[in-house]
């Protein structure tokens, strides 16, 4: 999930990394001491520049390489996934100027569901970077990521995550029946995760059709969640954020489908819904180290 912002067309033409950057498997190992005598001064300057980058700039440069040939439904190569995951695994709250005592993480007085703040760092057609700031009990309701690969790094706090993937070859709507004998507009999904995560923890990744593409987050404590989406949501392209109710497997009966009793808890029926009325995601200006898009 993310705020659907206008793509920054200005940045599109800059989303190509040089071949050197794309093929370098581990920029962190390139210290001045390891540069061979044959290295050109230009290459040395490039390496030194990379070493002196802020973590957020390194994240941006890595995203440019990883998503340069991306698009809806296109998953980056395993090498690129590993590269971006490694950059995010090292990320600390201070790298984006955040700390749990900041106002973003305080519960809103008078609101039952606390408002969530979204800090927008960057967006182009290929990817977006943003941070969700959740006060305790803040909820990002069950939503999808159509055609996307999403990297999520919990910067601090404890967050409960529940996620699902659609079941392939799920029963058609006419075979599903509720207690009144009607056919509800629901689709079968299999649960991927239903657990608490406490920072520091590894970056989690979801894919267009697995890894828990549909998910819901509930903040157990105040949390900061850094999200990289590739590609971002795009309403004009029909890839907007959709919200869902989830119902237990036993809520409906199905002709011709048998799931062993002990596995039923791992399945749920999802039904599309309007954006929840009590969901308040408020955009705020990101004030941490800036991304420079040259
Ligand atoms: Fe999400």
UniProtKB/TrEMBL annotation:
CDD domains tied to this protein: cupin_ADO (cd20289)
Cofactor: Fe(2+)
GO MF, one example: cysteine dioxygenase activity
Protein name (record): cysteine dioxygenase
Stretches with biased composition (Low complexity): 24-41
Lineage: Eukaryota, Viridiplantae, Streptophyta, Embryophyta, Tracheophyta
Species the sequence originates in: Tripterygium wilfordii
InterPro entries: PCO/ADO, RmlC-like_jellyroll, RmlC_Cupin_sf
Any single biological process term in GO: detection of hypoxia
């Amino acid at each position: 999930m993310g705020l659907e912002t206008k793509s920054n067309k200005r940045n599109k033409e800059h989303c190509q990394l040089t071949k050197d950057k794309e093929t370098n498997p581990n920029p962190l190992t390139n210290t001045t001491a390891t540069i061979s005598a044959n290295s050109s001064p230009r290459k040395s300057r490039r390496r030194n520049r990379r070493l002196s980058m802020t973590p957020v700039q390194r994240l941006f440069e890595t995203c440019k390489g990883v998503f340069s040939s991306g698009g809806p439904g296109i998953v980056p190569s395993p090498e690129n996934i590993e590269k971006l995951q490694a950059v995010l695994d090292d990320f600390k709250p201070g790298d984006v100027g955040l700390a749990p005592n900041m106002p973003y993480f305080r519960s809103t007085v008078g609101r039952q569901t606390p408002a969530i703040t979204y800090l927008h760092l960057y967006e182009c057609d290929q990817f977006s970077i943003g941070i969700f700031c959740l006060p305790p009990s803040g909820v990002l309701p069950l939503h999808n990521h159509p055609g996307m690969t999403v990297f999520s790094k919990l910067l601090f706090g404890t967050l409960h995550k529940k996620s699902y993937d659609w079941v392939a070859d799920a029963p058609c709507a006419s075979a599903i029946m509720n207690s009144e004998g009607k056919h509800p507009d629901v689709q079968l999904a299999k649960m991927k995760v239903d657990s608490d995560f406490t920072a520091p923890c590894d970056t989690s990744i979801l894919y267009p059709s697995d890894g828990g593409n549909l998910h819901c987050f509930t903040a157990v404590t105040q949390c900061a969640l850094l999200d990289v989406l590739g590609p971002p949501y795009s309403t004009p392209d029909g890839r907007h954020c959709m919200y869902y109710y989830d119902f237990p497997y036993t809520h409906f009966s199905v002709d011709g489908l048998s799931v062993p009793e002990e596995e039923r808890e791992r399945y749920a029926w999802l039904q599309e819904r309007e954006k929840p009325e009590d969901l308040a995601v408020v955009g705020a200006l990101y004030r941490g180290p800036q991304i420079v898009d040259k």
